[in-house]
Amino acid sequence: MALAQLQLLAKVQREKEDKLQALYIQAQQFAKNQQDKYDGLANYRTDYIRQSQQRGMQGVQSRQFNQYLAFITKLDQALEQQNMQVQQAKKVAETRRVNWILLQRKRKAIDLLIDKELEKMAIKAQKQEQKMLDEIATQQFFRNLHAEAGS
Q: Exposed (0-12), middle (13-18) or buried (19+): which is 28, by Cβ within 10 Å?
């Protein structure tokens, strides 16, 4: 494959890699936000239970106690749903990370091919230069030889 084609392919791969990296970072941030929501909800549940217990020590009617239990049940359900959101967001982030890493490997392989191609070109150029220098030296040798013979 020609060097220009490899370089174009590497450029396209870098652009794709940058996009995948941005998607991964976005997914990571979303997962963190979902985790923060879960943590906030869990803290709220804990505080609510603590307050309910304090009020319970002062005495509560059964209807009020049932309302506390119903609300705590709703909080538990919300926590379950939020936990599912957290797990899903983490899976998405991990999938995007893996895709990004795989594309990075492909791009690095292309970069390696480019480096090898550049090395081949440099060696070829050095050989041509050496051949040219040898030819010049040979011509100069024969000129000097003819010049000495003519004198």
A: middle
